Amino acid sequence: MPDIIFDTMVISNFAKAAQLGLLRALYPDNACCSGFVVAEVLRGFRQGHGDLEELVQLLSNGWPRQEELATPAERQLYARISISLGDGESSCLTLAARRGYVFACDDRLARSEAVRLEIALTGTVGILIKAVRTGAIDLKKANLILKSMIAAGFYAPMTRITTAMVTMPTEVHNADTQLQTRPPGSI
């Protein structure tokens, strides 16, 4: 399974719903975020978002691992992308593009840029669908988590995950990690 890189909103959605354990169970060794995302999370925590405390602790213990822009090519792509996107999205997009990671993001503009760059995509809802598909949670629990995220401020593209969404084949730009359409059990 390729590595996944979380932007601030996706990982914060799971933190605010007290579901970082689920996220960690799904991606125990292959999750990362950029240093910019870590800075955004820390800033949010310092500004009074106490629901990020567990995430701050996990980050200080090395999950997800923190990665930085390391090459001239990465810094150049970041400079181009960051003209229209924030630092977190831009750095994660760059690392996903240059290192072959799946980009976990809910921001529409950042997702459009990922499609343009042919980067594999998922988002908060896609991760919840993956959790149901893999048996980590059932559909009822996924919908309770989604409802909790929405109550905490997540502007979800839908208010409910359906059985049809869980059983339909997955395409990269719609749900998860494979480049071609795959049957639900193959992810």
Mean pLDDT: 90
Query: Low-confidence stretches at least 5 residues in length (pLDDT < 50)?
Result: 172-187
Give the CATH superfamily. Answer: 5'-nuclease
Query: Residue share in helices?
Result: 40-55%
Number of helices: 10
What does this structure look like?
With 187 residues, the chain is α/β, with parallel strands linked by helices. The protein has one domain: 5'-nuclease (Rossmann fold). It is built from ten helices and five strands. Strands 3-2-1-4-5 form a five-stranded parallel β-sheet. Helix 3 (35-46) packs antiparallel against helix 4 and helix 8 runs antiparallel to helix 9. The chain is globular. The termini are close together.
